[in-house]
Amino acid sequence: MNIIKNLFILMSMFASFAAGPSEVLFLIQSEESKYYHQIGPNLREDLIKESFILPPEYRINVHMINTLFSNNNTNNNYNPGEWAILNVIHQLVMQQKYHQLINDNTRWIAFCAHNTHIKLNKLMTELSKENHKQIQYFGYTLHDQEPTIVHHFAFFENPDWFPYPMLQAGVIFSKALFERIANILPYHYQHRHLCNSNSNQQHSTHSEFSIDAAHELARFIYDNVQIIEETATKHTLTKVLKNDNLSLPVNTKQASAAASSDTSKIIENVVEKRYLMKMRKIIMKKAAYICPKAKWSGSLDNNKCAMHAQPSYTMQCIPIKREEVYFAVKTCSKYYNDRLLVIQNTWAQYAKHIKYFSDVADVKVPTIDTGVPNADTGHCTKTLAILQLALKDIEQINRQKQQYWPANQANIIRWLFLTDDDTLLSFLLFFLPLIMHSVSGVCQILGCFNSSHEIYLGERYGYRLHALDGFNYITGGGGIAFSLPTLRLIINHCKCPSPSAPDDMILGSCLHSLQLRTVHSMRFHQARPHDYAPELLQLEAPISFHKFWQLDPLQVYQKWFLTADQNMLTEEIAFKLEKGATTFSLKSRRILSETKTLTLNHMKVPVVAVATLHHNNKRHIDL
């Protein structure tokens, strides 16, 4: 008996060894820019380092998504849909990389953003308690407060019940669900293509636009993945038996309970157990160990979190100056007395360079006539005209600055920010090393990027990402930031198919054909504040909101942006007047007849030297 028992134990150990350790596949999404490249690989490296101290029964496999579909990161193999999980899964299957990443030991697949924080050992411990054979996925669940356009008004009657993941905190799939999705997607996209190519058939119920990858993922799973559940039920059946001699023993046993007027028959009540087959849809589960955002360092709430989101601006980018941004506001004559008044009384007063481009010139606003009649939709021709006029104006302003201050390149315009006349902005939330904190705004985020590069920045949408002709574009409502090299690229190469073509999509398609990639920031918003989950707005300080529909735009500005914009001016003045940081104007330098010295950071610097000094390690001096 002991021999058999020991043999069974040995067989179990061998089976466990043959099966190998439980493996989790981590797929990390990161943007294509040097700023984000410094963040995403850090997460990958941290996971690999932490994996060295994992117990032997755990193993991880970590990949950056943007390297899976590219060859040495060349544009030739660039996949515009690498930010959308559904498209990533589809491409893994179509490019035959699925089985290279997922093996017999894979139990879970975790999708993370570049700003997801992971405590690997705790996560592996928590996952060991879950059933990887079940068709399920979990993370931190978000809910819509009301029907929203960014989710195509899904579940219009009651949107709050439907959960979808906060991707920045990470989302985890069981291998069973991941395989089910991978098997469904090719047929799903093939059916969509057939519907779109056949005018006699109705179009697919899913939009060709990709807006929110998290909600679209949850909606796809809910609509397409179902499991069969068996529900045990008890049924009472009535059997009528013939009262004959052959069945006499049975009939005699039941006869006392029989109730029939026919003495030749006996009624028997039999209880049977049946199983009802029921199709159940899959919705996301909330995991207590996946959190929206850390409270603070050492917080007790953080101890339970194996994964949580963290702001992506923690690199403390040094902001550009207000003088370096040119704002081009797209408007038309019918909005002069409402929308423009809001803009001029909110963020526009903090802009150094702002121009209003319209279909009619009006010196009272003032506006600049683009020479293009206003269209009800699209505005493509008008937008290209605005970009041309704005670039011409920028170059003229820069020439004048260089003429008067030839040695000072610090204040020339380096960026164009295109915005609608119903877009609310946090124009500038200033960063000062003296204060040792960084807050966000247009100038702060632009400081993360090199203006000499071709930068195309804002909130990214996608169109037909599943197809060969798919592309990304920056949606216009949230505002679009162009570096001047990008602006020149557009003017030289992009054309409108019609005046009313959608301007932001045409720009995106054109730049995609020129192999220029979008740079996405979740701080830009195409819609209103209540169109987004509160957790997302709390994670990263918003830069913009769009639409004045069913809200008071002044109240929105006061709630989200006013205090910070006012603090900007206060901090800017305090910085210049701070003890030891003396500022000389051009006029005051001309008055000086001889070289004098000033105290700067306890160093005596000649004024003539200061005239060419624009930066040091702790100060920026305007001269």
From TrEMBL:
The organism encoding this protein is: Glossina morsitans morsitans
Q: Which GO terms describe its molecular function?
A: glycosyltransferase activity
Asked whether the UniProt record includes Transmembrane helix among its keywords, one would answer yes
Q: How does it sit in the membrane?
A: Single-pass membrane protein; Single-pass type II membrane protein
Out of the domains of life, which is the source? Eukaryota
Main localisation? membrane
Task: Reply yes or no: does the keyword Transmembrane helix apply.
Answer: yes
Query: Entry's Pfam families?
Result: Fringe
Cellular location of this protein?
Answer: Endomembrane system; Membrane
Q: What is this protein called?
A: Fringe-like glycosyltransferase domain-containing protein
**Signal peptide feature range:** 1-19
Note the InterPro entries from the entry.
Fringe-like_glycosylTrfase (IPR003378)
Where in the numbering of this chain does the Fringe-like glycosyltransferase domain appear? Answer: 320-555
The alphabetized UniProt keywords are: Glycosyltransferase, Membrane, Signal, Signal-anchor, Transferase, Transmembrane, Transmembrane helix
What's an example GO cellular component term for this entry? membrane
**Similarity section:** Belongs to the glycosyltransferase 31 family.
